Amino acid sequence: MVREKPGSFQLASRSMEIIGNAVESNLNFFIKLRNKIEHRHIEKREVDTLVFGECQSFLFNYETTLIEFFGSTYSINEALVYSLQFSHIRTKQQDKANRSALSKDLSEIVSFVERYRNSLDEATYNSQEYSIKLIQIPKISNTNRADAAVEFVRWDALSDEDKAAYEQLNVIIKDKTVKVQAANVGRLKPSEVVKKVNEGLVGKSITQNLHTTLYKIFSIRPKNGADDPFDTQAEFCLYDETHGDYVYQDAWVSFLTHFIQSSGLEPKELRQKERDGEKLDVDQYRM
What we know:
By secondary structure, the chain is mostly helical. The chain contains twelve helices and two strands.
């Protein structure tokens, strides 16, 4: 028989009073996410990137609760200051790991995250207690060499002029999230890829057949009937398991537009390369 420590019931009751809706939603998110990830063999780094905002809020909420219950002596801010980012340069190994986003397990995790976020009301979703949204701006130089490498700016401490400048910056670079209950939002069919590429070309165009040639010679997706249909380059193409076909990303449109416009390779040359089984390296033709 397990005996509760004196005061544990009061502590639990107090915690429910302190935890607001956004904090509770953040905690519930990680409970459900943990249950889905447990025992699955997926590339964890892809999940880390996906839920960075929720992770940061989770840490802040944890520390806030510790201080509220036990005092500032138990603060963890000196041990966990800021997470390091390694996204400036992607190695070939990282690109290879990125293909894991096409696995069935990870695609289910991504779908869960999207569904959970879409289920939240606007106030909860936009709360910093549910998910931290950050704008990172490299500091060109420090006026004082003792300055911290990372500074958090308090919004309520800014002047009206500074607030206006930050708002303008936010408009320029923020990633607008459109919350809709739908699948494959922003994903393109082959015909839509062809249409968008042709809209961006000057004096040139591609056809549906040429698009087929291009995805083959760049190996962005496997052949029809392949043993592993998920083995695509996730940056450009994803396998839609529900419909048994492939959808394409805007990055593929941008890449093809640049490639067709600047490579100097004519359609007949590209088709000959396909017949000869020749492959082209995406990295050699990036912008």
